[in-house]
From TrEMBL:
Protein's name in the database: DUF5994 family protein
Domain of life of the organism encoding this protein: Bacteria
Ranges for region Disordered: 1-21
Record-linked Pfam families: DUF5994
Organism of derivation: Streptomyces mirabilis
InterPro entries noted in UniProt: DUF5994 (IPR046036)
Length: 162
């Protein structure tokens, strides 16, 4: 008789590491159409990992059933993402449309539009974007806001030789 090993201890499910907190900033009031309702700074471009955390954080604004986002910023957009015990449908904006936004749709609460701050953005830049009031009239696109902050950070003050 050959010896057998008991692998039950190695097969036991290990607890998953704690999820980092969602980096989300919401406006106090819902924006007018064309404006932003806040900003989201995901940790990666992996929608299957990032979306559940965002949707759960948005729980107070209604049950999110669908999201639409820029296809150029997300390499893999699944048609459905599991969030808790439900699925959220995902769609995308084609090239040429604003790519730095995510629209969260709810049957009961309408939709929310968030500025998406790229995951590789420096912390101080992301903090500025998340804490800067976004025009509710839609006068700035997400790409324009990101460009403004990039220019602001890259501006090097010139020392006055006098």
């Amino acid at each position: 008789m050959e010896p057998t090993a008991d692998h039950s201890a190695t097969r036991a499910k290990r607890p998953s590491p704690p999820q980092p907190p969602v980096r989300l900033s919401l406006a106090l009031h819902k924006a007018v159409p064309g404006g932003f309702d806040g900003a989201w700074w995901p940790y990666s471009h992996n929608l299957a990992d990032e979306l559940p955390v965002l949707v759960q954080a948005m729980d107070g604004v209604g049950s999110i059933t669908r999201v639409i986002l820029g296809i150029e910023r997300w390499p893999d957009i699944p048609h459905r993402v599991a969030v808790g015990g439900q699925f959220v449908s995902a769609g995308w904006f084609a090239s040429g449309h604003e790519q730095n936004v995510i629209v969260l749709c709810s049957y009961h609460e309408g939709f929310r539009t968030l500025l998406v701050i790229p995951p590789t953005t420096a912390a101080d830049t992301a903090a500025w974007l998340m804490n800067t009031p976004v025009p509710a009239d839609g006068s700035r696109t997400a790409s324009e806001l990101l460009a403004i902050e990039t220019a602001r950070r890259e501006a090097v003050p010139v020392d006055d030789p006098l």
